[in-house]
Amino acid sequence: MTQNYAPDPALLAKAETLVEALPYMQRYAGKTFVVKYGGHAMGDPEAARDFAEDVVLMKAVGINVIVVHGGGPQIGAMLKRLGVESQFVGGLRVTDKETAQIAEMVLAGSINKEIVSWISGAGGRAVGISGKDGGLVLCEKVGGKREPDPNSGIERHVDLGFVGDPVAVDRSILDSLSKDGIIPVVAPVGIGADGHTYNINADTMAGAIAAEVKASRFFLLTDVPGVLDKDKQLLTDLDPARINALQQDGTITGGMIPKLETCIHAVENGVDAAVILDGRVPHAMLLEIFTRRGAGTLVRAAAA
Ligand SMILES: Nc1ncnc2c1ncn2[C@@H]1O[C@H](COP(=O)(O)OP(=O)(O)O)[C@@H](O)[C@H]1O
Ligand SMILES: CC(=O)N[C@@H](CCC(=O)OP(=O)(O)O)C(=O)O
After folding, report:
1. What is the DSSP string of 172-196?
2. Which residue did the predictor score with more confidence, 49 or 144?
3. Residues 6+ apart with CB under 8 A from 176
4. Is 144 exposed, middle or buried (0-12, 13-18, 19+ CB in 10 A)?
5. Which residues contact residue 234 at a Cβ distance below 8 angstroms, ignoring those fewer than 6 apart?
6. Tens digit of pLDDT for each residue in 15-42?
7. In this model, does residue 298 exceed pLDDT 90?
8. How far apart are CA 211 and CA 50, in angstroms?
9. Is the CB of 161 under 6 A from ligand 2?
């Protein structure tokens, strides 16, 4: 007995999607991608599950994925619960000794292990570390910032306390984990030569790691579709000169300034491209990596 076999169009579309992904899988196998997962992007449990699936799929097709996470809103919530005041200067949290302890507890304790659990739940193997582990990140106290005084408006110098800037990254612990099929998940906390614990902006931490491992792609998952122009239209491609112009004319403000400065640092120090993506969009990274459509804002160094 014979039967006409008409493939289900939905299944056929799935097969075509896989075939579309093939050249990208071949291009990226063996390459290193650094993913910065921001605190705003990780709010929704469904989006978190999609994020973990994307990371596990990337690893399964041979990409060495390194996750660096934030947690600013979650630190803020914990400080509020504990009745500790907190303020930001130039996008960085002023961090006294108590705040540094709480930030470490939230970042390296709860958030780090939660991301490890999500990745395990998606069938991957992850190990959570902070910049303190295996000598990963040595940092230096960030110099103070100039800020107008809220009362007088006169500029004053603000000491940020235990806020660190990565000055040396030792990639060996990342390489050991990656080689063994493990996805490193890194909390933005580091140690200084003075032995103190420092709170590091997660974009800065991720950028320093991306530059050290010469990542092919550096993804920054946030809560906007990418960099928007004055008419709220997505800017799909940027280079350092254009970013400087957008900063000068006030198109880029707030948290986007350190984010793009980190992208410039990364692409000028050996990272092929940085991409700012909306982490709330389901499977945002897979769409960017494995389809012709792409998403978000791609930042590259200026052509030589
Ligand atoms: N031109 C711009 N395009 C997009 N976002 C911008 C722009 N200028 C400022 N922003 C702000 O930058 C924010 C992203 O930075 P941030 O809050 O530090 O993100 P995250 O916590 O994910 O690191 C956006 O939510 C938006 O409010
Ligand atoms: C020094 C400094 O500001 N550290 C940040 C670290 C977390 C972070 O950067 O998280 P997001 O990426 O979610 O913003 C903070 O304390 O909020």
Report:
1. HHHHHHHHTT-EEEEESEEEETTS-
2. 49
3. 134
4. middle
5. 225, 226, 227, 228, 296, 297
6. 988 898 999 999 999 999 999 999 988 8
7. yes
8. 26
9. no
CATH 3.40.50.2300 fits 27-299, yes or no: no
Ligand nearest to the CA of 163: 2
- Give the distance (Å) from ligand 2 centre to CA of residue 19: 39
Quick one: tokens of 213?
Answer: 């491992």
What is the model's pLDDT at position 2? Answer: 61
pLDDT value at 213 more than 70: yes
Given ligand 1 and candidates 222, 233, 251, 276, which is best to mutate, with the most ligand atoms within 8 Å of its CB?
222
What's the CA gap between 149 and 133, in Å, rounded?
A: 38
Other beta carbons within 10 angstroms of residue 61's beta carbon come to 15
- pLDDT at residue 4 in the model: 67
| Model confidence pLDDT, tens digit, residues 84-102 | 999 988 788 999 999 999 9
- Which ligand number lies closest to the CA of residue 202? 2
- 250-293 pLDDT, tens digit per residue, is 999 888 988 999 999 999 999 999 999 998 888 989 988 988 77
Distance of alpha carbon 59 from alpha carbon 125, whole angstroms: 10
DSSP one-letter string for 118-185: HHHHTT--EEEEETTGGG-EEEEEPPPEEEE-TTT--EEEE--BSBEEEEEE-THHHHHHHHTT-EEE
Residues annotated within the binding site for substrate are 71-72, 93, 199
Report the chain's terminal Cα–Cα distance, integer Å: 66
Is the Cβ atom of 124 under 6 angstroms away from ligand 2?
A: no
pLDDT, average across residues 93-114: 97
Burial of residue 239 (CB within 10 Å: 0-12, 13-18, 19+) is: middle
**Residue 128 pLDDT:** 98
